[in-house]
Amino acid sequence: MFDFENYFDANPTAMLLIDEQNGKIVNANKSASDFYGYNTAELCSLNIFDLSILPLEEKINLFDEVRKKKNASYKLQLQLKDKSIKTVNVLPSLVKIDNSVMILAIIQDITNEIENLKELNKYFKIIDESVAYIGIANKERKVTYLNKSFRKAFGINVHEEISKFETSKFYSNDGAIQTRKNFENAVLTGEPWLCENEMKTLEGTIIPVFQSGIVVKDQNNEIDFTSITALNISQIKVVETELKESEKFYKSLFNHLNGFAYCKMIYNNGKAIDFEYVKVNKAYEEQTGLKNVCGKRVSEVIPGILEKDFSLIKKYADVVETGIPRVFEVYLNSMKIWVNVHVITPHANHFIASIEVITERKEREKKIVDLSNRYKQLFESHSSVMLLIDVDSGNILDVNTSAVNFYGYDKEQLIKMNIADINTLKNEAIKQEMELAVFEKRNYFLYKHKLANGELRDVEVHSIPMIINEKEALFTVIHDITERVKNEQLVNEYTVSLKKMNEDLESFAYVASHDLKAPLNVVNGFLGLINSKKNSLSNESRDEYLRYMQDAVNQMKSLINDLLQFSKIGLNKDSLEMVDVNHLLISIQSILSETIQQNKATITLHPLPTILANKTLLNELFMNLLGNALKYHKAEQEVVIEVGYEETADFHQFFVKDNGIGIATENLGKVFIMFKRLHPQSEFEGTGIGLSLCKRIVETHNGKIWVESVLGEGSTFYFTIKK
Ligand code: ADP
Questions:
Q1: Which of 18, 83, 342, 673 could form a disulfide bond with 103, CB atoms 3.0-4.6 angstroms apart?
Q2: Nearest CA to ligand 1 atom 12
Q3: 363-480: CATH superfamily
Q4: What is the pLDDT of residue 703?
């Protein structure tokens, strides 16, 4: 038979027996009196309601509930005798003792457990909200817990069922292999692991992490669960690669850009006497060809440097002592190299020299200087006139000695001038021409240049574009071709006059064959007649023949005279003088006075100028024109002649006007041709040379002659003389 009494009294768990009707405590075991602090008698004088700290109404409700239900458990707070409050788990059950129904309450003190749970919850909250990704998996490697940041980073919803995920779901291939290895190792050793690893979100984004993991086993040494904590280190990774890159960069800078030498100055009695290499970079070794210098003195590394290049040490010492950085270029006699040196002092007695070997550059510079000196010499001493002209402004930048001699200005004057001060072209035109040269469309030009004394010279210019001091310039070589141009003109003139002479010669040939032959034939004919008739020739006939012969000879004489006149013209060309044309005509009138009277002619002289001309030729010219005007008129007509003058810009223009027979329009041009006559001898005597003589005289004076006429009314002959 179940011994309730013994079970009740000896039970290590606190137990109370309570009257089901009114809640009175009927009995309490030893554990209960130990727990509550009251002895059994004291407890048995209390009601269960006295121990609970719930409000009365709730106590009654609870008691009613307990009476109805079986096998429930209630978590309650109780007050002990010492007034302390405990949390308890109450397991009530109804028991029948001595025919009355009692409540047997088993009371478990869970105060400590509750406190522990609270503490655990606090930690859990921390874990849940940690920035680290925290996950727990069971021994089947199924996920059982993921904290908030894990879910967030890996894309898992709060309400999503996580137990479906295998742990491998959250790793890249490499990451999964590594985790597996770590896990197996941890199972063997029981040690947690720490490593860098690669995780993967559900979307497939790789997250580099720093991961710690632990495998927890149960009492039977079976795997209970695995927990991992991972920190996202992608930011750190980026910084790390950047750091690595920049480290590499600086390293390469240090090694390749310049040679660096970090040195310590060595003093003796306060005087810098040597220095010691502390550290140098690769570039220093490469550039200088020095090896294994660290820890050695420069006097040991570069023998003779103290004697041959002591100024170098002085310069370094200066930087060390003043703290002021220095940059200099120096030739090292001891090493036979040029170096560019930057020196700074990082701290006392030390300096860093950054060295660049510039021997090649220096040699190149020297060559350029030599070369430009040679060109300068060439430029200076060249016999050709040379100018350097700035393209933008046209200013003269440089001139050589020949230019100074040619233009007649000092060098200082010339290099203050503009090319427009020398070239007679307009500014705009000069600009355009220079552009042709700059774009290398043309490099040869002909100009007139003005010298200091005002003289104009014909020049031939060769221009080559070049860059001088970063500005566009024209290098021009100038040749004085004035003489050549003059000679060319002369040649041209000679050619023209030769052509003319040729034409004249042809005319002579013509006259020789026709006009001169004609009177000769006449003479010949009559001589023949006289000869053949001899004695039978009557005196009358002979006189008549002789008269004909006389006429022919006279005609020939005047032909020859006129031709002589004509051929003389060219020869008197240079004898120019001031001729008062008015006087000239008055004297001509007196020479012609007989003819004037015979023809009852009146000659009106308008005001006439004094001009520069060949007087003899001008006289001949007017004689011919006035002669013709007096000759070619209708019989019995009173001749009226006018001589007038008009001045134009470049010419003196004269006219001789008559009221004679005039010239048909179609003949106006022909009258100036040699031997051309419009009338037979019987009508008007003449040789046909007069007007061509006039033409020749006018042309000798660089003028022109022409005629305007109305047949039957009169003619006006115009001619010009160049001023
Ligand atoms: P010439 O008078 O000896 O015939 P010129 O050369 O002087 O030779 O004249 C050429 C021709 O021009 C003359 O034959 C004449 O027909 C014509 N002529 C010259 N002057 C006049 C004039 N004033 N009026 C009309 N005809 C003229």
A1: 18
A2: 671
A3: PAS domain (3.30.450.20)
A4: 93
- From the CA of 658, give the closest atom in ligand 1: 23
- Residue 5 identity: E
Residues with CB under 6 A from ligand 1: 624, 628-629, 632, 658, 660-661, 663, 671, 677-679, 686-691, 715
Max CA pair span of the chain: 229
Q: If you take atom 23 of ligand 1, which residue's CA is the nearest one?
A: 629
> What pLDDT was estimated at residue 532?
85
Q: Which amino acid is at 422?
A: I
| R_g over Cα of the chain | 70
Model pLDDT, residue 403? 95
Q: In percent, how much of the chain has pLDDT > 70? A: 93
pLDDT in tens, 409-462: 999 999 899 999 999 999 999 999 998 888 878 889 999 999 999 999 999 999
Quick one: average pLDDT of 383-403? 92
Looking at domain 257-357, its CATH superfamily turns out to be PAS domain (3.30.450.20)
- Just give the CATH number of 130-238: 3.30.450.20
* Nearest alpha carbon, ligand 1 atom 2: 686
What are the residue ranges spanned by the domains of the chain?
4-111, 130-238, 257-357, 363-480, 569-722
Q: Regarding predicted confidence, which is higher, 245 or 190?
A: 190
Single out the residue of 448, 452, 464 nearest to residue 406, CA to CA. 452
Domains 130-238 and 569-722 share a fold: no
> Which of 639, 676, 691, 715 should be mutated for ligand 1, with most atoms under 8 A from CB?
691
Check whether domain 569-722 has CATH 3.30.565.10, yes or no: yes
Q: 3-class SS at 30? A: helix
Per-residue buried b or exposed e for 646-679, using 16+ beta carbons within 10 Å of the residue's own CB: eeeeebbebbbbbbbbbbeeeeeeebbebbebee
Name the CATH superfamily for 4-111.
PAS domain (3.30.450.20)
User: Within 10 A of 255 (CB to CB), how many other CB atoms are there?
Assistant: 16
Q: Return the residue whose CA atom lies nearest to atom 3 of ligand 1.
A: 686
Q: What is the C-alpha separation between 436 and 129, in angstroms, rounded?
A: 82
Six token digits for residue 541: 């006939």
What is the predicted pLDDT for the residue at 571?
44
Q: Above 70 in pLDDT, residue 1?
A: no
Ligand 1 atom closest to residue 677's alpha carbon, by position in its atom list: 14
